[in-house]
Specification:
Layout (H helix, E strand, L loop, with lengths): L1 H35 L7 H6 L4 H7 L6 H13 L1 H10 L3 H14 L3 H6 L1
Helix pairs in contact: 1-4, 1-5
């Protein structure tokens, strides 16, 4: 029975390698925004409507999300860097996706907040 569980988990891991980076990004962004965004925030409604596609939402609405929340998202990514390293070590092609993610976000970043943070 124990071997079956390991075999099944290993099979699932192989199938989910493609989605692993996206899953970590979804987890980080979703958790930070869900826990830290105030319901009175003007962006809250857009966030709730886009929760099932949180990564594109974060990139597209980046400039409308409060700077302190953006900082919190990137701080959480930094805190969870072992997860990112684990994902990238399994599939180095994901590094291109991660770089694209950062490039899209930083293109819209507020330089004043970036420098002060």
């Amino acid at each position: 029975m124990r071997a079956d569980k390991r075999g099944t988990a290993g099979f699932q891991d192989e199938d989910s390698d493609e989605m692993a980076l996206e899953n970590v990004l979804i987890d980080v962004i979703g958790q930070v925004l869900a826990n830290k965004m105030s319901k009175s925030d003007p962006e809250y409604k857009n966030f709730k409507e886009a929760y099932d596609r949180i990564v594109p939402y974060f990139q597209d609405r980046f400039q409308y999300i409060a700077d302190d929340l953006v900082f919190e998202v990137f701080q959480e990514m930094n805190d969870r860097q072992p997860e990112f390293i684990n994902v990238l070590s399994k599939n180095m092609l994901d590094i291109c996706e991660l770089v694209r993610f950062f490039a899209k976000c930083f293109k819209k970043a507020n330089p004043v907040v970036t420098v002060s943070a």
